[in-house]
Please model this.
Amino acid sequence: MLSLGIESTAHSFSVGIVDEKGRVLANVIDSYKAPEGWGIEPAKAAQHHREVADKVLEKALSDAKKMMKDIDIISFSQGPGLAPCLHAGFDIAKRIAKSNKKPLYGVNHCVAHIEIGRVSTKAKDPVTLYVSGGNTQILAFVDGRYRCFGESMDIGIGNALDKFGRALGIGFPAGPRIEKEAVGGKYIELPYVVKGMDLSFSGIVTDAIRKKEKGASLKDVSFSLQETLFSMLTEVTERAVAHTGKEEVLLTGGVAANKRLQEMLAIMCKERGAKFYVVPHDLAGDNGSMIAWTGVLMHKNKQKTKEELLPRQRTDEIDVSWL
Ligand code: ATP
Ligand code: FE2
Model:
């Protein structure tokens, strides 16, 4: 069985093809790049997605050495995401499903991050820390659904790092640059904002920018920003592990590439006797394979979805019938 998935919630338009075991046959990603210094403009990103769609689809089929007739099901990201971007993916998914007479599945983007993480790392029932540009969530399976145990109350962790980078003119995306810069830095105190299980990053970034403007070195501020933000993430993840009694932690999203964040979580897991997994880099950011694979799980479990977009859909609205 072959499944084709289309991801288009934000910057990236991607088509992935996976088989019934979750093996990835193709995973083509084409990302919209906003002009330097600008955030994402949904209409521009959506236009990009529509322009590259056919090319990305053809490349995915050719990478997988398959034809459209070999595909059994088609899935699209249903939400959460930017409505114009979601529409671009949905239109293409509907078009190819109809013209090739294939069943169509609407997939929740956050659930898809967890599922591709589970299948690619063999984690069974983890607490998942999903850290990307726009998202920061601590999720775990309880009572038939993935529940959100903690999340950012303002911006996503990646966007927080990028906001810092933009203010200091170190280029986009700033995460990898901050990571390099931080090596060997000294700690300068920054605010630490965890409220219950929720996190807030904006004020910390503003304070870090102010410290730099007042003369602290980029190295020390980068180091302190990472230590502070990642300690907050580790603290809340640890409490979710303690609360749920789970024995695994799964790290995913674009920020999962950060070695210092990986190290902090690995230490926490070791101390608690939990197993720690990191999703492979090419499947950690937004990608079509995660949508395709979640479509397989829904299809196998006869979990139908409505043919509609839900830009504000929450993770815990989705029945997880396959667990
Ligand atoms: P979303 O999934 O929320 O739509 P996105 O597509 O912007 O977000 P990803 O591609 O998952 O997100 O991740 C991009 C983010 O990851 C950027 O904010 C970038 O700065 C950050 N990032 C990438 N590499 C690293 C790193 N090594 N350390 C920290 N952050 C990183
Ligand atoms: Fe994502």
About this structure: The chain has a mean pLDDT of 96. The pocket of adenosine-5'-triphosphate (ligand 1) is lined by residues 9-12, 132-135, 156, 158-159, 161-162, 173-176, 179, 253-255, 257-258, 285-286 (CB under 6 Å). Residues 125-282 form a domain with the Nucleotidyltransferase; domain 5 fold (CATH 3.30.420.40). The chain has two domains: 2-113+285-317, 125-282.
